[in-house]
Amino acid sequence: MTRRWIGSALVILVLAGACVQLGRWQLHRLDERKVRNEVTTSNLAAPPAPISEIVGPDHVIGPQHDWRTAVVTGRYDASKQIVVRYRNVNDRPGFEIVTPLILTDGTALLVDRGFLARKSSELAPTTIPAVPSGEVTVTGRLRRSEHGGHTSGGTPVDGTARLINGPDYGNTLGLKLYDGYLATDQQQPAADAAFGKFPGPEIDDGPHFFYALQWFFFALMAIGGLVYFSRQDLTKDEDEEAPAGEGGPPADTDVADRNRPATAVGVSDSSTAPPER
């Protein structure tokens, strides 16, 4: 029970406890994902409905609305169109074109009109399909506003942005926007064929369960290592103490030498001296 051993044991126990908490956190995320998958599956199966019947008067598209099919009618405001950069669809980098749709009640909804694959190393699409004039009806999937932590990627700058965020767009464009957006599935009149379709959601449990197992395994390794090396230290100490405790103290060589008869220099023992002549 030395100070070094106690300090090492405390560090290992703290690390093991942290691993256990991380494993529990992964299981908590797994539960959240299962709940979200249930909501997504239910929303995908629901029939299309006007957005006013799905989203409340607060105009906030929340987790309970994600992937629900909504139908909206209005006019696009092409002057406030935004090019969203650094997008990836089916492992293809490119851009998404977001245009505000002014609804009949005066509110506006961001509509993700489609995906344009990047050609070579272009930083912006060379051509963007024209915005339909007149009234259009769009059927698509409701999505929540995207957030990038403390970054300002949801604020449009020079007609481009990295995220799709209703409130941030509304502050910049001067529009009363829904908090969220609509990813287009169908449009009347039909959308330009240059736009790529969006894939559906991934409905699975993800890697959270296996991540939790890994963290629990790391905790067991830490505790097992503490027990193993503690036993090694004890065995080593016992081995070092064993010679002093077995067989008694070594013989006093000085006493043994004094008990032997002394032999003078140049004088031989009488038992070994040669007979006289």
SSE layout and pairing:
Blueprint: H1 3-45, E1 49-50, H2 51-54, E2 69-76, E3 82-89, E4 92-103, E5 108-117, E6 135-143, E7 160-161, H3 166-173, E8 177-188, H4 208-245, H5 253-259
Parallel strand pairs: 1-2, 3-7, 5-8
Antiparallel strand pairs: 2-4, 2-6, 3-4, 4-5, 6-8
Helix pairs in contact: 1-4
Please describe the structure with a list of short key phrases separated by commas or semicolons:
alpha/beta, 5-stranded mixed barrel, 8 strands, 36% helix, elongated
Q: How does this structure look, described?
A:
Keywords: Cell membrane, Membrane, Transmembrane, Transmembrane helix. Residues 236-277 are annotated as: Disordered. The chain crosses the membrane at residues 209-229. Belongs to the SURF1 family. By secondary structure, the chain is α/β, with parallel strands linked by helices. It has a 5-stranded mixed beta barrel with strand order 2-4-5-8-6. Strand 3 and strand 4 (92-103) form a beta hairpin. The radius of gyration is 40 Å and the shape is elongated. The protein has 2 domains: 1-47 and 202-236, no CATH class; 68-200. Helix 1 (3-45) packs antiparallel against helix 4. The protein contains 5 helices and 8 strands; from the N terminus they run αβαββββββαβαα. The chain has helices spanning 3-45, 51-54, 166-173, 208-245, 253-259, and strands spanning 49-50, 69-76, 82-89, 92-103, 108-117, 135-143, 160-161, 177-188. 36% of the residues lie in helices and 23% in strands. The chain starts with a helix and ends in an 18-residue tail after the last helix. Residues 263-272 have low confidence and may be disordered.
